[in-house]
Design brief:
With 246 residues, this protein is mainly alpha-helical. Helices cover 88% and strands 0% of the residues.
Amino acid sequence: MEIPDFLKAVTLEAVTIVSTIQIAYVAWQLLKKWMARTAMTRTLKAKFEKTLRVHKRHIAFYPIFLVLLWTSGLFYSKELAPVLGVVHILAWPMYSCGQSKTVWHFLGFYMVMVSILLLSLTGTLGLLHVILNPYIDINHFASIFVYLGAYRVAALHSKEEDEYFTMNSDDGDLENQAELEEKTRLINQVLELQHTLEDLSARVDGVKEENLKLKSENQVLGQYIENLMSASSVFQTTDTRNKRSK
């Protein structure tokens, strides 16, 4: 069952709100700890300062995370982006607070990096698709790949057929002959599909050329109408001046 679009948008908003609450809570806890005038040993103070630096980097990087999250969600996938956002939200406490256990610290770091890299990659792919789609026909490229695949299949079948004739030139078995006829029929179907794809690509190119011609003709016609209107206004102005002078 397909998820409705409004639920997909709600998941993005929910991840954004949860991450905002998380960063606000961490900032508040650090502020309280920093304002509290409690005596700490040198080891505890070093750990606290290290954790504080990590959270400062987290707060500074948070706007970039939001941009990547919403770019990936809006332009690539509204299902994958919230999942990566949740991974990022869960990984930051492991990275920042796992100072006592090195395993948790590095696991959180790698999870943060993977989530950020995947969000960047998916967001970039989505933006490229949106930007390049009006200028590059993605379906036309897909038909080209299908054509190349069909050509490769036909070449492989032709090579197998040549090997078959070379190795079994003296064999008159009816079963092998039936297999050869079946392969020949498949090759003919592939070639017909190849010709059909070529015709479709030629028709698409013809339609594009006709659209370009129509656009240019419309532009010329619009310019001609503008010239007529300007000439008519000049003529009316001149006529009015002549009447006034008389």
